[in-house]
Amino acid sequence: MRVNIQLECTECKRKNYVTTKNKKNTTERLELHKFCPWDNKVTLHKETKK
């Protein structure tokens, strides 16, 4: 049930991270605060559609 997802920065719109999530337990889109190397700060990253 685990699927690979990409996380996209909400400020620069670049796909910086790849992670996995369990679709059965987490049905909504994942949102995490992660470090963006292009913005050089911690920003909100959201799950993207493939």
Describe what this molecule looks like in 3D.
This protein has 50 residues and is mainly beta. It has a single domain, classed as Single Sheet (Rubrerythrin, domain 2), CATH 2.20.28. The chain is built from no helices and 4 strands. The protein has strands at residues 2-9, 15-22, 31-36, 41-47. Strands 2-1-4-3 form a 4-stranded antiparallel β-sheet, with no helix packed on it. Strand 1 (2-9) and strand 2 (15-22) form a beta hairpin. The chain is elongated and about 35 Å long.
Question: Topology of this protein?
Answer:
Elements: E1 2-9, E2 15-22, E3 31-36, E4 41-47
Antiparallel strand pairs: 1-2, 1-4, 3-4
Categorize the overall geometry: elongated
Q: Helix coverage percent of residues? A: under 10%
CATH class, named Mainly Beta
Query: Proportion of β residues?
Result: over 45%
State the major sheet: 4 strands, antiparallel
Q: Would you tell me the structural class of the helices and strands?
A: mainly beta
CATH topology: Rubrerythrin, domain 2
Assembly type of the chains comes to single chain
Please write the string of helix (H) and strand (E) elements.
EEEE
Counted beta strands: 4
Average pLDDT taken over every residue: 94
Whole-number radius of gyration? Answer: 11 Å
CATH superfamily: Ribosomal protein L33
Which stretches of 5+ consecutive residues score pLDDT under 50?
Answer: none
CATH architecture: Single Sheet
Number of domains: 1
Q: Order of strands in the sheet with the most strands? A: 2-1-4-3
- Summed up, the helix count is 0
End-to-end separation in angstroms reads: 17 Å
